Amino acid sequence: MTAHLPLSVNADVVTFTGGGVLVVIEAKKNERPKILYCGPDIAGTDANQLSLLSRWQYVHGGASQERTLTLSNELGTGTLAPPGLIASRDGEDWALDLRVVEVQALEGSGAEIQCFDPSTKIGANYRLILDRNSGVLTCSTQITNHADTPFTLDWCAGMTLPLDPRLSEITGFSGRWAGEFQTEEIGAFQGSYVRENMAGRTSHECFPGVILKTATTTETHGAASGFHLAWSGNHRSRVDRLSDGRSVIQMGELLWPGEIRLGARESYQTPNLLATWSNEGLGAISHAFHTHLSTQILKKRSIAKPRPVHFNTWEAVYFFHNQENIIELAERAAHVGAERFVLDDGWFGARRNDKAGLGDWWVSPDVYPDGLHPIVDKVRELGMEFGLWFEPEMVNPDSDLFRAHPDWVLEASGVDPIGFRNQLTLNVSKPEVFDYLYEKIAALVDEYKIDYIKWDMNRDCHHPGNSGSSDKRAVMHLQTLGVYRLLDRLRDAFPSLEIESCASGGARADYGVLRRADRIWTSDNNDARDRQHIQKGASYFFPLRVLGSHVGPKKCHITGRRFSMEFRVASAIFGHMGLELNLALESDADRAVLAKGIDLYKEHRALLHGGTFHRLSSAPHANVVGVVAPSRGEALFSYALLESRPQSAPDRMFFSGLDPVRQYRVQIVWPQADPSINTPSIVEAGDFMGKGTVFSGAALMEFGMQTPPLHPDSAVIYHLEEI
Ligand code: GLA
Fold first, then answer.
1. From ligand 1's centre to the CA of 384, what distance in Å?
2. For the chain, which domains are there?
3. CA pseudo-torsion sign 408, 355, 421, 509
């Protein structure tokens, strides 16, 4: 058997392994680079075997030679499959044919494959880095124009990756405002699955993630692979089933016409495409992504710090700010256990409703004549951190900023702007806009020692033209990079500042923004039942520690549905917990329940955010998730009943991720009173509200446990501790 070294680069073949993944690339000098294999590690094989096993077969009626599937599947290869690179020099030089020039090992487990096409004078640098801890492969492509005449790039996927044809099914992601991260199941097909987003932000409708699996893959068994584009602008994902039996995936930035024109020696860098593979089901794919995000992408600072309980003012007061009310809210928030107080929209300029003020980033003297100091001082006196809402990229036409600089917005000449929440998008790619925003935000962060920014972005971007400039091309790519630079600059200047990425909820949730943010606002929808679905969808790629999840008002402002405080708490605990309600309108009893729920979150947040997340296979009427400590000595599982149960008996719960040979004491830690609607029930029999009962891990996983009979819209949280 050949043992794979973590990384080997010889003249012809690049191999890297780690985290259960194997990648083998044929990269012979002057030849086209080709991925021989990427997928779950195959022990005891080598490149020669893989090369022979993947040999092309001539069939009558087709081309008489192989058309190699390269890292860009560019047109010069003779491909008839969708190319991963579309570009030309004013209609010429479109037949790109990139050949290997040099291969270099990168630090860790990665390689850079430099290619060049002498005929078009275009170069491509492919970077592939395998995170050997998680098994997530990060791929990207840089295209450089080595000629003196400009070269226009219409499409460049992060990379073109071959797919195991047995992964015939797709879990895709769709959604809408207040209904993000909906999953859709797509069965076997011939042809193409294509998702495109032109919203100018990651979008509510089209999260850039694709999961492939076999028809029998479950959460814990079977082959699966997951792909994510770490990018907060426009994007395209496509899976193509070719008629020759091959399948490929491409994900990359979706460009506007003529947007990327490379002058001499200029380059375009794709966003990172992240990929992972497993033979152990969908749970393993999520685990790989969660581990990679936590260890490689999130800043170390917020990883070490327990995620504080938020109080956010939005649904408590909307635009009706005044110092006295806000201070009263802060007192009530601290009383139930909040640790960070976030003053949402409405504190600045003429922002008394959503028609005015965006862009005028100074504290409104009408509303807060003494500035925010009285509030900030009170918040700190109450032992909480202080956070403030901004929507930096936006401007209301009714603002001092727009009146002074009407040419600072993105627009396309000759067309009227599309109305969207009474606001326009600022052109952050303009240095003067960037500087204005940085100075205004930095001054406030400095003056109030702000701990946290809720960074919002509340409109799609329909016409990202570079108005007010002689070059009128679309600048969506530069805009996205400009926002990243602004975030980076603030983080560099204020190293302990934390940032939440919000875009009317989860419309800017991706690993690109999470390089410079600590949390995403998962959804504007705080409906406890909808949140179970939304957070489950998000959990395919995002760990609980980044998923902002708030206890909302008794009657949800978005859906009009009413939920008990127990259920609202249960839905918020499996995430980064917060509150977003007018506490004065809740009953004393509910405030007491809330305070207990916050205590429970604090007690278990190290486990919730440091453990391994599990989605337990569940029918649509229930959502069952859990977190198991890395030691497997402790776990927390939640069973939420979302619809009336389909059978007379309640579901059996099959726990996951435990050590089969260890013994665990099982108790119910939420709600605080026996939730069974009929007794006697398993809760009494097992004394789960009291001392609990001890079971083996194997019994809990293989035999399962009856859940109590519950009303729909309620949940039970089990705590398991090894004895
Ligand atoms: C967006 C956010 C909300 C809130 C409002 C304020 O909708 O998602 O949480 O901050 O803006 O205008």
1. 21
2. 71-297 (2.70.98.60), 300-354+368-393+403-410+422-521 (3.20.20.70), 615-722 (2.60.40.1180)
3. positive
